[in-house]
Amino acid sequence: MEIHINAGSGVDNKETLERWADDEVRRSLARFSGDVRRVEVHLSDANGGKKGADDKRCTIEAHITHAGAVAGTGDAPSLAEALRGALNKVTHALDSQIGKRRDVRDHTSIRKDAELFTDDK
User: Fold this and answer.
1) Cα–Cα nearest to 42, from 74, 69, 78
2) How far apart are CA 78 and CA 76, in angstroms?
């Protein structure tokens, strides 16, 4: 699973933040590693240097193999909270999308049992 972290302008300690975010994403999405090929994380500070409620934003896109992408956005007072909020939304979306795919793939058919269709009377 490829992970791309993009820290926008106005975000301090980009290298440290990017390493931490990469670790958090890998840990949170590890169980989807076989189904997700790429994750893009966008971290930004809406107000730049000014303080404000919910001015930090994290948007995460997870690209599922042989399917589309799911996304989640988190707004919070800190980038850590915004990342965790976005991860929570993406995890729920992946559970839904991948769960639906597995349900379809795991269904067995009675049509494979020839015995059920013979009329031995």
Assistant:
1) 74
2) 5
Instruction: At 23, list the tokens.
Output: 């670790």
This prediction's pTM: 0.76
CB 35 within 8 A of CB 97: no
State the CATH number of the domain containing residue 10.
Answer: 3.30.160.100
pLDDT tens, 45-85?
Answer: 877 666 666 688 999 999 998 888 999 999 999 889 999 99
Helical axes 79-106 vs 14-29, angle rounded to 10°: 30
Tokens for 58?
């994290």
What is the total count of domains within the chain? 1
Buried b / exposed e over 17-39, threshold 16 CB at 10 Å, is: bbeebeebbeebbeebeebbeeb
* Six token digits for residue 2: 């490829």
